[in-house]
UniProtKB/TrEMBL annotation:
<dbReference type="InterPro" id="IPR002401">
    <property type="entry name" value="Cyt_P450_E_grp-I"/>
</dbReference>
<protein>
    <recommendedName>
        <fullName>Cytochrome P450</fullName>
    </recommendedName>
</protein>
<dbReference type="InterPro" id="IPR001128">
    <property type="entry name" value="Cyt_P450"/>
</dbReference>
<dbReference type="InterPro" id="IPR050121">
    <property type="entry name" value="Cytochrome_P450_monoxygenase"/>
</dbReference>
<dbReference type="InterPro" id="IPR036396">
    <property type="entry name" value="Cyt_P450_sf"/>
</dbReference>
<dbReference type="Pfam" id="PF00067">
    <property type="entry name" value="p450"/>
</dbReference>
<comment type="similarity">
    <text>Belongs to the cytochrome P450 family.</text>
</comment>
Length: 447
């Protein structure tokens, strides 16, 4: 099964899928433009939606509508709510294996209903792909062609449906959380963001006043985005979303496994945990492991421990997708999705962490690992257009400088608010001078 699906993630296949992935990521840019910079957006939720849509696109040639739904309201049966609720229930089940027997609890019934809705969504999708075969480059087309060596026939729905269900669960929150951790890391380091924008500008992928619409990202650009890819790698080192998950059992019947010239014996049948996060952050393996330093990925062989060999092989210290025969089968897709999304997002916006997230310490303190690593508070951010569309009547396009000035005004208004002033009634204001502002419609007002 893995072998058959793996070909769906080949470079050639992903190249065919690239325009669809780019379009799906671009949808998020459009949605963020529509939402505007004022109200913070939960970028973790947004990127999880985007990666669910990418999985739908690459997997089944379907637009799941999760990113667009950010502009409206999710209904319980919709792809994003169904997937998130089913995943949350699966996580609760991992924490409490007896949960499914606790039928006196209303939340257990709600969880069962959520899981049912998710499987209904998957079986609708299954019926769709049986009725109308998706393009050959989709994962679905690869799945439909898998032949069971025991029967010589293609696989039944009963067998395929759980595979599809696993793909959506494995594909959405992993990439989504990873993208939002990368954005968090960048929001904390102006120099790193400056280098990203410099690289994008050098490839004409950055919105500027002269060219407000960057040129579309092309497949060949991906390998030229050396620094952005280094930032992604570094954020996967510091915030590995599956840092606590993988478990491995030595091959049955292979006897005990001896490592380190006899120093460590792993008894046959023992279950091993791969502590990815601990390896990625170990001071024994990395210089300044707590520092975001994308430049370390510009050196050759950065994923190996320098000057260390084990059984004649270099020793790996970087494994965000795990290692071995059951590592992430879709890592090429995940990497492509991350680069495409972040290149397009940073090409059009700069992101500022919203005040409700608190300080960097507050964000780290709110980390939670269920199946994947996320932040309890989501990742609330202001998406500030690099070059904003000129609004009707306004004198200048809205940009980051104005965003900061406006926040200043709104904050001072908040103080006024306590003495009876209504911010809502005044709308959004842009500061012009000492005490003059004009609103979105360009009408001057007095503060
Ligand atoms: C940044 C994003 C991602 C990360 C960090 C990640 C990480 C991982 C890791 C660590 C494993 C191994 C788990 C274990 O050993 O127990 C895994 C397995 C898997 N991943 Fe991913 N993953 C990502 C994205 C995706 C995407 C986008 C898909 C599919 C659309 C996907 C599908 C799978 C599947 C099907 C497996 C099971 C493979 C097997 O058992 O042979 N992953 N992933």
């Amino acid at each position: 099964m893995r072998k058959a699906v793996a070909t769906a993630f080949s470079t050639c296949n992903l190249r065919t899928n690239f325009p669809g992935i780019r379009k799906t990521c671009m949808q998020m840019v459009e949605v963020l433009k529509e939402l505007g910079p004022d109200g913070p957006v939960d970028m973790d939720n947004a990127t999880c939606r985007m990666s669910l849509d990418v999985t739908g696109q690459v997997g089944f040639g379907r637009d799941m509508g999760a990113t667009r739904a950010l502009l409206g309201r999710d209904e319980p049966g919709q792809a994003i709510s169904a997937t998130q609720a089913a995943l949350a229930e699966a996580e609760m089940g991992l924490i409490d294996p007896l949960r499914r027997y606790k039928l006196w609890r209303p939340d257990v019934w709600a969880g069962k209903a959520a899981t049912r809705r998710y499987h209904e969504m998957i079986s609708r999708l299954m019926a769709d792909i049986r009725r109308e075969r998706p393009s050959e480059a989709t994962i679905a087309a690869h799945l439909l062609d898998v032949v069971d060596p025991r029967t010589g026939k293609t696989l039944t729905d009963e067998f395929l449906q759980p595979q599809i269900a696993q793909l959506f669960l494995a594909g959405s929150e992993t990439t989504g959380h990873q993208a939002s951790w990368a954005m968090y890391a960048v929001s904390q380091d102006a120099e790193v963001e400056a280098k990203i924008t410099e690289e994008l500008a050098s490839l004409c992928l950055l919105a500027t006043h002269k060219s407000p619409q960057p040129r579309p990202l092309q497949w060949d650009d991906l390998k030229r985005l050396t620094y952005l890819n280094a930032v992604i790698k570094e954020s996967m080192r510091m915030y590995p979303v599956t840092g606590a998950v993988p478990l491995r059992t030595p091959v049955k019947g292979g006897g005990d496994v001896t490592l380190g010239g006899g120093k460590l014996v792993i008894p046959e049948g023992a279950v091993l945990h791969m502590p990815i996060a601990a390896i990625h952050l170990s001071p024994a393996l990395w210089d300044n492991p707590d520092r975001l330093d994308p430049d370390r990925w510009l050196q050759e062989n950065a994923e190996y421990v320098p000057n260390a060999m084990l059984n004649g092989k270099c020793v790996k210290r970087y494994m965000p997708f795990a290692e071995g025969a059951r590592n992430c089968v879709a890592q090429t897709l995940a990497q492509l999705n991350l680069t495409t999304a972040l290149a397009q997002l940073y090409g059009s916006f700069t992101f500022r962490l919203a005040s409700e997230m608190g300080t960097a310490e507050d964000v780290r303190a709110a980390e939670q690992t269920m199946v994947t690593l996320s932040c309890v508070k989501g990742m609330m951010m202001h998406a500030i257009p690099r070059v904003a569309p000129v609004r009707a009547g306004s004198r200048q396009p809205f940009c980051e400088k104005q965003f900061c000035q406006r926040r200043e005004v709104l904050q001072s208004r908040k103080r006024v608010h306590s003495s009876g002033y209504s911010i809502e009634a005044q709308g959004s204001l842009i500061k012009l001078g000492d005490n003059r502002v004009h609103n979105y419609l360009g009408q001057p007002e007095l503060v």
